[in-house]
């Protein structure tokens, strides 16, 4: 069962939203509906599923409906149509008492501007969810102290939120959400109000926490870099519609439409595209089965000036160049082993491009992609790297 | 003119007559209750030796609002005592406190209702405008109809005139609570009453306190007017001064009203917010420093 499943969700603001849905289904766009029918479309037929333990990022510019969407997931905003299943239960049909119970136990939310209570101490803020649940004060305090330690704010329990920096305040917000032990976190632009360095810290910390806690996180952001960094999967929203859902690489490699493509152009692709996506199948010769002549013929057939050499089990030994081979043939020698150049650069398939670029400084040869057991996986040429960065797919 | 004059005044008179006839018991109940409250209050205040009470009030002023207000209270109240206006001042104080309490008891829930419901807001707002801007003399007359002459109609007129700020500012304070804080409380599963009492009201306290301050000031400003229908206190002194063309007496009474007004204003203004130079802060610092010294 999916942890969260959203099916055909609509949110239309106005006096009679139900009448607008058929128009949207008929393909009328948001601006015309606003002009002609005086209704504002928040979410337009959104459907997606979130797996347990996944970080699902919803990305879009302001006005794309992402904040409305996340508020429909705990009914801070009432959806106009569609269903939201949390662990199989449709929350759109719940009574307000059952909904409260669900909000207390299952869903916790982190807000863009922290939304802390200024009249309470940090400790009381963290314990707020438990206070609402009428948990006894001793237990509340203990749990809140534990959470403060997890988010790195030990010793700040008696401070007031105002006395803390933005980053620290959001840690309090995060601790408050974690304290209820809800397994679904809704994070609405949680890091957007922080300055870039602090934001990066918080992203890293969230990823670290996530490794330990395995929450199901739905994260809203307008920042594609942030989405690509923390999202297991990303949904891109535009005008209330979800235009694409996929992993970071799927979205960068294969944007669903011009809108997404435009977005992804600004991304520093060097950080996202990995060696395995731009490498090509490597031609190689097997040492035990080849002599100088087979090597020379193969290079001539392929039109290349050097070729990798592996052993029988595929382990990379080095590279031989056409010049050394012809020299060897001229000398009348047969063996390849003595002319293998072992001074080649290798890289892991998961390394991003920006780690590959420096390797070309030290070597005239292409870079070999090898797995953890040194088996040859593929080959990367200098030109492919550049193509990867500018967004071509290197299928020349 | 195409129309005859509309008989609004006529029907208001009819309505007042009808109410005096049919709700006599109700009005008597209110009258007795208010009388008991105000007279009990002033008897209690007068029964305390003036010097003791002066020291107590001055200490309270220092505690919440600091040195300046403390010293001002001490000198001001001694001056009132010296002028021979102590008894009337205490009667006025009892009237103001009673009127403010009742305004609070009615005004707070109304303010909350106005904040929560747009319909209530639409209905209550014009009524508040009416209460605040209708010249006070106009409802002094029906007040006398219902409650006879004396302190009670004065108190009722005072309550009507002084209640709007507490209602308005309670409503404003609650509406001004940041939307995301309200969302946060709801997202953690707060019930409507948890939301109100754990989040909205506490965050609205400074604004509500400003309303309380305004309510107290307005009720003091009604003191002289309500003296015209027989309410006891400093208003009576001023009113006598006016009617007897006794400028000196009128001024002394007026001065006592001003002193009370400033004192109550300074004290209530500081209630909602923590003050750096208040006596409370002074005492806290004093003991903190001593305990620090001890640990060193």
Overview of this protein structure:
The complex is a heterodimer of chains A (396) and B (296). In chain A, strand 9 and strand 10 (241-246) form a beta hairpin. Chain A contains 18 helices and 16 strands. In chain A, the strands form 4 sheets. Chain A has a 6-stranded mixed sheet with strand order 6-7-8-3-9-10, sandwiched between helices. In chain A, strands 2-1-4-5 form a 4-stranded antiparallel sheet. The longest helix of chain A has 18 residues, at 196-213. In chain A, helix 7 (137-150) crosses helix 8 and helix 15 runs antiparallel to helix 16. With 396 residues, chain A is of the alpha/beta class. With 296 residues, chain B is an all-alpha fold. Chain B has a single domain (11-47, 83-295), classed as MetI-like (MetI-like fold). Chain B contains 14 helices and no strands. Chain B has helices spanning 8-22, 24-47, 50-65, 67-82, 86-116, 118-133, 136-147, 151-175, 179-187, 192-221, 223-227, 234-243, 247-271, 279-295. The A-B interface holds A 71, 74, 76, 100-105, 107-109, 111-113, 115-119, 128-129, 131-133, 176, 180, 186 and B 178, 180-181, 183-191, 194, 198-199, 202-203, 205.
Residue runs with pLDDT of under 50 for 5 or more positions of chain A = 392-396
Radius of gyration of chain A, whole Å: 28 Å
User: How many β-strand stretches of chain A?
Assistant: 16
Described by strand count, sense and barrel closure, the largest sheet of chain B is:
none
CATH-level-4 superfamily name of chain B: MetI-like
Low-confidence parts of chain B: none
Quick overview:
The complex is a heterodimer of chains A (about 400) and B (about 300). Chain A is α/β, with parallel strands linked by helices and about 400 residues long. Helix content of chain A is about 40%, strand content about 20%.
